[in-house]
Give the backbone structure.
Amino acid sequence: MREPVRLLTAMLFLTSASILAPAQASNGQPWTAEWITAPGVPQKDEVVLHFRKLIQLPQKPEHFLVDVSADNEFIFYVNQQRAGSGPSHSDLANWRYETYDLGPLLRAGENVLAATVWNFGTHAAIRQMSERVGFLVHGKSSAERMADTDSTWEVEQEKAISTIKPQVGDQYYAAEPGERLDGARFDWAWASTSGSGVAENQSWAKPVSIGRAAPRGTTDAPNNWQLVADPLPQMQYAETVAGRVARANGINLQTGSTVGALTIPAHARVSILLDNSQLTTAYPALKVSGGEGSTVRLTYSEALVDDRGEKGNRNQIEGKHTGGVQDEFLPGGCHSCEFIPLSWRTWRFLQLEVQTGGQALQIEKLTAWFTAFPFTVRAHFKSDNNLLAPIWDVGWRTALLDAHDTYMDTPYWERLQYVGDTRIQALISYAVAGEDRLARQAIQAFNNSRIPDGLTQSRYPSSLVQMIPTFSLLWVGMVHDFWMYRDDPDFVREQIPGTRAVLDWYLSRQRSDGLIGKIPWWPFVDWGQDFSSGMPPQDENGGSAVITLQFVETLRYAAEMEAELGDSALAEKYRTAAARATNAVEKLCWNQQYGLLADTPAQTHFSQHVNILGIWLDVIPPSQQKTVLTKVLSTSDSGFTAAGPVPLPKMTTATYYFRFYLARAVEHAGVGDQYLQLLGPWREMLSLGLSTWAESPEPTRSDSHAWSSHPNYDLLTIVAGIRPKNAGFKTIVVEPHLGSLNHVSASMPIPKGIVEAEYSRTGDGFEAVISLPKGVSGELVWKTKRFEIHEGRQTVALPQ
């Protein structure tokens, strides 16, 4: 919950999803409802507003449908009960509104509609795009028009809430600011009806109209919000614990207990460190009474750090402290009031610091409201190797916490939807949850982000333009992934004009020798140790083999989609360009001495990355792939490593993110049985006490980066071997790589149902039991043998 308010009357908190109505298409005409704001307040700078309206109903309605939106965000109440929050983040040309059925919350007689709306202006998160502060409610039909925002609403500015800049040192931080609430100034009764009204309370005023609301496609819209229905469900909102006491100073508390009723005496200073045992994304909820003159500070940390700023083992707290995002609450002597920040927070460790003045502070309780995208896990992976279970669990937790109304790279530091991260996250969503709504949002958002040059922006929505041209190639890959794993060719066709624009930009930069020329902006590939800012080397005129191979991958994907859904002549053009690029890399970048691909024709720099892609894309001939892969896996950043008679050059190694592509290369080279050996970095993270996967090897900024969660996808698609044979998963390939495992049980959702696979080692091989949904067939591949499989359950003996 984003509202820092609890009225004195008890509130019943319903799950938002229970009253979320299905979105309805607009007829393209302006609505009667108006965007409204407050008179005399900042319109494009930091401001918090309360809105409310009384409506009279002759009887309780079965349904009462309204559309609600705001800029930046809102929390909507009906009769002091939370109806929902939003809108989902997007851009002005696709501004979201949420649709609610308020029927369950309404009653016969007087009803109060109320909302808190905020716009943090220049202090807002980078992902927040904005026009100006505004609020909108639109009744779906004539029966609900009484709810329309217009001059019949009231508004007040809430001056007791302000933002706090997070204390994160020189680390890049792009997420929401901290907040300060002054309880002595806060209008705790803003959503009640007693003593209200413009005439009785001078803080309330009639709102100012910003013009009628305009659905996208409206002729001559009076404002810049082009409204579209939010295709996403409401996020999860469930009460949970905020953590358990790990350390307390100035007060005697039992380690391992939760914070319940306790009294902080006057003129005292108390510090309580809570450990949630795992990372969470939630709204902390602190309920207190008294405490006039007190200051309460809440600090949220992914991990504790020592005096050198090092995290070390995340489970160890001695000699370590918190730091980072903070909220402050000044109770001001209020009675049974509850502080909840407007924006959700991310923490494993939450430190509560209290300094009281002349009045004791009664802490009634400290809890939290968990929030994330409402995924339902439909896949499973179990084996006789107990170390794989925590890898699966931690990976899914990481993917979940990095998914809200957009995917995000990290829920603590940035909350930005980057193409490179999102491609992996979407594949995990398809494989584990059989869910594509968030992926559709992302694919379309990146398409909407394209600049006139044709390229997508690196991240979107974003108020700050950032260009990573290589991510535009990965976006085309995202579209292809969707085409293969989901069954909606019309959605894919809608993206093809964008994929063509991306490839037109690259084709214009393909050199006469077939390599890609110099790439401007930030051609990020991976946080390799000697990749400058994550960029692989380019010669003076370009010629990056890594980027050229990413171009090859994209051309092949686009050719497949064009051949089936678009222009066959363009498909052939893409194949020809891919062949030229492939031949160029092989001819100009293959180093005969080392038997490896170099990063440029100058052949002065080598990386795992170019050889990984060279294997996966068959630029390196199949007969040499295992040899090259052995060299790749035997190298480190420390220098030369003996791997035969010729010492190998130093190679830039792939970090957690790019090891996703390493896994593809390992399987493609025919050594998928060695996949489990690649999980050493994940076992190391577990030994360090991480509850979510880190951004990069130690020392790492972020302890939660979903691009490191690809083992969940790999365990299903490589180890259990379940993958689509053609677009839409209409036919299937099951090709397990069990390595040293004796037993594996897995299931994976596909558009037509659930695929189940179980493998058990026998005396002379394995027994495979495969179940396919109705209407699905394919083949089971085991070493050099192929077996036809069909809908229903079948048992196949797999020889040693």
